[in-house]
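User: Quick sanity check before I run a bigger batch. Here is a single chain. Can you write out its predicted 3D structure?
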Amino acid sequence: MVSWREDKTMDYSCFDEEYYSENTDKNPEPHAIDFPGKPDILVVEDEIRILKMVSMFLSQQGFRRDEAASLGEAYKAFSIKRYAVIFLDINLPDGSGLKALRKALEISPNTLVIIMTGTQDLSTAVFALREGAYDYITKPFSFSLLMGRLNSAVGKWRTKVFHNHYLSYLERLVEKKTESLTTSQNEIEQSHDNIVLALGTAGEMYNPETENHRVRVSVNSVFLCRRFGAEGVKLRDLKWGAYLHDIGAIGIPARILSKPGPVTANEYSVIKKHSLLGYSLLKNIDFLSGASEVVLNHHEKYDGTGYPCGLEGKKIPLFARIFSS
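Assistant: Done. Predicted structure follows.
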């Protein structure tokens, strides 16, 4: 015999929409998060008298509730609605309530299932907890005990749903910020490219014969570098360094650069300074600091007979070696 002893002193106010209001003030964009609404409750019980009494009680407390008297009716209810809490009888006329437990959690992982069982079914209730049930209640039970279990389950459900919604909000926020950063980064990269092109154009105006040479060695260097698996910033540094490798020529007197015949030894020593001049020009520009190493070392030779430092072998930076090859 089920004992229905309603406790008139129970406070059921915690189930209204203000459940999380005190925790939302610190949220930077509360309007962007879907907060849990009123919970839907399903009662699955084959004893019609108990089913109707529990359902009526929940209705009196302001809950939306549905009823199912069999496994088949429970499955049908699962397919239509996602429930916050399910009161589930273990022994149903057309199958075990454990099947309904597994199906409910498969469809809606946020659902909290409370097993309703007789005292002789405690081992089954424990097994159900291991299968994912949230709690159990033994028959006969009072309304106050029922509400205590429901109070706990709804609080847990709201926490789970809020947590999932907040994670979704954070994912959307990160995605939005990432898109914004990607756009900004692309704009920065484009502006950097424009600056490099402008520097190259300045060198071209000073020494027009270098235009095709700059483009050709830059393209060839990038091609070789990719064969070695380089990418990202390293590939960019090589591309820009190769393109600007002779930028230091703007510091060499035009009379030497444009001399129609062979240069003298002294004139050649002046020309060799263009590597160091180009390095000095680029090294303090943050996005060209890597490229400046290529500019400095692009005339070094593997046997140590190059300039300006006479480096040999692997002492020559890799990208300068790739460029000079």
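The chain has two domains: 16-175, 188-324.

User: Great, the batch can go ahead then.
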